[in-house]
Write a sequence for this structure.
């Protein structure tokens, strides 16, 4: 017997993601899904951001996804922000089921921004909706300016591309113009920030974007 | 690597559908996956065999059908199949615009049909 079905394979994840999105909206929490290669600086960007923005009163929490260890959660927790570690046990991405579980220890009513630090990988995390408002693609200048061309799907679906480690530009063959051009070819609306977590240059523009996005999300709640 | 979790999702849909239709023996599952679905068919087959081995579904075959990429031009609205698959920024055959195209097909990842008794 032939049974015709036509059901999205990731249906279960999509349903959970929608439920998460509703919960986040109820609390007016901005949720950002950080995606990059291992070593691009996701945790460093969070350490800086959490430290600097907490000083002006923004309340933030982080869900950390790693195949092993809680090193990143400890680094994040050292800033005073709440961090929940998910060990994927070798898995290459986070999904909405894992986020739902992790939320048991995140007080949504007491935060403005929730960062999801995905597993370091430019491919798989793109496919799994975690209920976020936006995907943030983080690329460091030591990785090569051809990444947006090689991994177009991430840059196509991200709202923001953060170029990290710009202090190293004099020492590497990375053209910011090339990276931006390739990324904008697949996503003309992409917002791009060049910054360095080490020297702190360029961070202010990223913070301004975060403040605005968080305020926008919060106002959606009262509207 | 994420093919393992995709196959896990496929198998739970398959079991649900089999139960719904009162069948117990699975012969074939067909999945359609778009060029942009980030799924490697061979890896899917491999994961399917690994995850069905030793279960009531052992011996069933997974077939994948590729759905080609088609785009709607960001400038003139023409729907076209790019010459090079998986390339989002490519020139429109009508107005030559290269940027801002919308994906019409190619992102699918669907369970399409089952053969079972």
């Amino acid at each position: 017997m032939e049974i015709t079905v036509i059901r999205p394979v990731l249906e279960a994840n999509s349903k959970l993601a929608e439920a998460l999105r509703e919960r986040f909206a109820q609390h007016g929490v901005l949720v950002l899904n950080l995606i990059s290669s291992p070593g691009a600086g996701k945790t460093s960007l969070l350490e800086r951001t959490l430290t600097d923005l907490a000083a002006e009163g923004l309340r933030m929490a982080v869900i950390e996804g790693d195949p092993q260890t809680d090193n990143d959660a400890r680094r994040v927790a050292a800033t005073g922000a709440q961090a929940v570690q998910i060990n994927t046990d070798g898995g290459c991405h986070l999904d909405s089921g894992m986020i739902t579980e992790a939320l048991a220890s995140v007080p949504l009513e007491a935060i403005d921004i929730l960062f999801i630090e995905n597993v370091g990988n430019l491919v798989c995390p793109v496919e799994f909706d975690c209920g976020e408002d936006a995907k943030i693609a983080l690329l460091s200048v030591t990785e090569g300016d051809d990444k947006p061309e090689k991994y177009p799907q991430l840059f196509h679906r991200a709202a923001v591309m953060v170029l990290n480690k710009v202090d190293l530009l004099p020492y590497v063959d990375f053209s910011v113009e090339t990276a931006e051009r390739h990324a904008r070819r697949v996503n003309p609306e992409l917002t791009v920030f060049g910054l360095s977590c080490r020297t702190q240059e360029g961070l202010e523009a990223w913070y301004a974007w975060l403040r605005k996005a968080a305020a926008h999300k919060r106002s959606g709640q009262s509207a | 690597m994420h093919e393992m979790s995709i196959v896990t999702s496929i198998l739970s849909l398959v079991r649900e559908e089999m139960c719904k239709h009162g069948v117990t023996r699975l012969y074939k599952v067909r999945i359609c996956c778009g060029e942009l679905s980030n799924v490697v068919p061979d890896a899917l087959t491999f994961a399917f065999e690994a995850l069905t081995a030793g279960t009531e579904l052992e011996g069933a075959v997974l077939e994948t059908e590729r759905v080609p990429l088609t785009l709607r031009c960001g400038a003139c609205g023409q729907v076209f199949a790019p010459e090079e698959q998986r390339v989002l920024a490519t020139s429109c055959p009508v107005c030559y615009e290269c940027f801002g195209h919308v994906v019409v097909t190619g992102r699918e990842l669907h369970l399409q049909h089952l053969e079972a008794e």
Observations:
- The helical segments of chain A are 11-27, 42-54, 71-77, 96-102, 147-150, 152-157, 176-186, 203-222.
